[in-house]
Design a protein that fits this description.
Layout (H helix, E strand, L loop, with lengths): L2 H10 L8 H10 L8 E3 L5 E3 L13 E2 L3 H12 L1 E9 L7 E9 L2 E2 L11 H15 L2
Helix pairs in contact: 2-4, 3-4
Length: 137
Amino acid sequence: MSMILALNFKKNNMKDEIISFETAKILHEKKIFDYEYKSWYTPQGELMESSTRGIDFNFSGGLPAPSQSLLQKVLREKFHIDIMIEPFFDGDEEGGSLYEPTIFWDGFDEDENDDRIFPTYEEALESALTDALNIIK
């Protein structure tokens, strides 16, 4: 882990979050996730977890719920979609940061006029993951 990333994790208390139910629904539709995981959503949106990795979620019609970083890795390695979350200072004297997601794939980046910003790294990453999944045909 780079020094800047490590400091950012420490400063902003960044966590490796499970993807949202909405993102899990898109991921399930794409049928691209064949990794072991221990979290899934029920069809009603309840997050379930098991201490055993690789559990078969299909028995209940469940949706895979990997961590944001694992899904980001899958998108990068299988589909060559890179996600960058850029922090920037918001001008607040408290030293707060805002975060802007950017997606790169096949030599292109997403709409440069997209100026969405988020108050947390995790929200920016979740938004970018959803957008990246929607790129996949």
